[in-house]
Amino acid sequence: MSWVPDFANPERLWTLALLPVLIIAYLIVLRLRGRVALRFTNTGVLGRVVGSQKRWTRHLFVAMSLASLVVLGLAYANPLGVEKQPRERATVVMVVDTSLSMSAEDVSPNRLDAAKKAATQFMHDLPDTYNVAVVSMSGSPSIAIPPTTDRGATERAINALELADGTAIGDSITSALKAVDQAPKGDDDKAAPAMIVMLSDGTNTEGPAPADAAREAKGREIPIFTIAYGTENGFVDVDGRRENVAPDTATLKAIADASGGKSVGADNSAALKDAYKQIGSVIGYEDVKKPITATYAAVALGFAIVAALGAVFMAARWPR
């Protein structure tokens, strides 16, 4: 919450103009009081008449009264603080690599099944108002499910993902951007705030360069968060040959950097869950202005109580 607020009704701040008037009036009263004191040659008599009061305490209690009025004036203008709240209509597109390399078993039970489980958990951890879409990334990427708040339908789409040939990362990003376009727009006809989460372990094998699609995403203010999944020793058997399928971290990091996102690594199921948590913590929140009038009123009440106690103290005739 910010303590330098905007005001919902700034025109009401005119009440603060009364402060210098009150200060001037107080100084005039002090001056007149001093003139009255000069009329008495016997200061003992004056002390019995007006009582014994320390000057600094009198000034303090007057200051508390003025401070109370100032804060009440600010409260009257309806101050607005800033709080972070989950975005409404935010859209998260999960791009899941379904290429044959995801059958590697260096992550139990295999990369694809572990990815499905982690993606499902990540989806359920998102606010209910978020739209979630899923893109299957292979040589022929497709939108498995368009943006929706139906978590059951999205989970079924994730579980239905199957292995396929090829890895067209650039085309997959383009498909993810098309999925964002399908998200419902607001009353102002503006596109929903969005992000892309890409889980992949392979090098781009076909289609356009991923960097071009990543720059397009940046131009639309849609960051891409990439998760390089798997271990350096991961392998798959293809036509009787064992092939290493270590994640291509350099390519995935370049995609994230070009789009304004972030790249993380996940060489096991636990790390994959942590990666999703990191992503969820840095996106999907916006600054929302909220009234904080009650806070200012409480501060004004505190000043007023001190001022009231001071008035009682000055009015009382304490025994000597």
Automatic annotation (TrEMBL):
Pfam family for this entry, one: BatA
InterPro entries cross-referenced by the UniProt entry: Aerotolerance_reg_N (IPR024163), VWF_A (IPR002035), vWFA_dom_sf (IPR036465)
Domain (VWFA): residue spans on this chain: 91-279
Keyword rRNA processing among UniProt keywords: no
UniProt entry tagged with the keyword Transmembrane helix: yes
Domain of life: Bacteria
Family annotation (PANTHER family): BLL2462 PROTEIN
Protein name, entry field: Magnesium chelatase
Lineage: Bacteria, Bacillati, Actinomycetota, Actinomycetes, Propionibacteriales
